[in-house]
Amino acid sequence: MDALLVLFVPTIVTEAKAMAAAVERAAKDATKPILASVIGTHGVPEALAALRNARIPAYAFPEPAVLALARAVRYGNWLARPEGHVPALERVDAAAARAAFPTGREGWLAPDVVSALLAAYGLRGPRGLVVRDAEAAVAAAERIGYPVALKLVSERIVHKTEVGGVLLDLGDADAVRRAYRALERNLSERGLADAMEGALVQEMVRGGVETYVGMTEAPGFGALLAFGIGGVNVEVWKDVVFRVHPLTDVDAREMLDRIRGRALLDGFRGAPCVDKSALAEAILRVDRLVADFPEIHELDLNPLVALPEGRGVVALDARIRVGPPRA
Fold first, then answer.
1. What is the pLDDT of residues 196-255, one digit of tens each?
2. Of 40, 110, 230, 304, which is most buried by a Cβ count within 10 Å?
């Protein structure tokens, strides 16, 4: 037995006060946690008060007692886990990242700057080129190799898919031209033509599991790192876990196991297991980037595609919002 939960409902021949006294006596020599749930009205408030005065957790219903015990167990497991350490990461070029970082800027960074920062911290993205017209998009696609994706570049528009700003699997020059014009038309029809700053032509990456790695801020906690199942439905599934910055190697590995959709990472319905080591390392690399650049206030890698074991991860889309250094 690891714990004892006493459930008591007063009857005609029993008194809640007597039960409380008996539990208090038994608890004096106990080496295991003891909780009590006293249900009813006659004598129950007094019994609950007596138990609490004896430092025995007491509840009016069993459900909160079980929840409290479960959280105590979870906290005990957390205390007993390995402490972990903040690892030193190879392939980090902080000087190159600082050289690419725009000083005094506030708002969302341009895609080429984001790519330079991620590359400096060992976070791989697909090959891509920013273009300003349809013919430049075709030239970029020829250089990268078909098929390609075409994505809106805009500082004002954060969620590109909501305005038809992502077009995939473009297999030839005509498809790229049509996609670029469709992108312009989508924005024009929404009265957002002036928000388009160009487009990103990007190689297609197939397979893997779409995950999400991000950073945000919370009052009283500071920077928080996030991990979950990603893609366009990340805000629908809400399958995301958070840890306080800075992270240890233990934190990063635990984040992979805490999401509800972790079965997707282990090879769901015959799919290959993803490269979980590379995924945990990517979380730590984002954490290091956040540590070195206090100007970063928000960061999203979504989707960060986790490929099969040995093939790493690829950040298909990324955005970083900057401002005055965090306190």
1. 999 999 999 888 999 999 999 998 899 999 999 998 888 888 899 999 999 999 999 999
2. 304
Burial of 113 (0-12, 13-18, 19+ CB in 10 A): middle
Mention every residue, 6+ apart, whose C-beta is less than 8 A from residue 226. 212, 213, 214, 215, 216, 240, 241, 242
CA-based nearest residue to 173, from 134, 206, 130, 127:
134
Burial label, 166 (beta-carbon count in 10 A; 0-12, 13-18, 19+):
buried
CA dihedral 269, 271, 276, 279 (to 10 degrees): -110
Q: Which domains does the chain have, with CATH numbers?
A: 4-80 (3.40.50.261), 127-204 (3.30.1490.20), 209-322 (3.30.470.20)
Q: Are 113 and 125 in contact (CB under 8 A)?
A: no
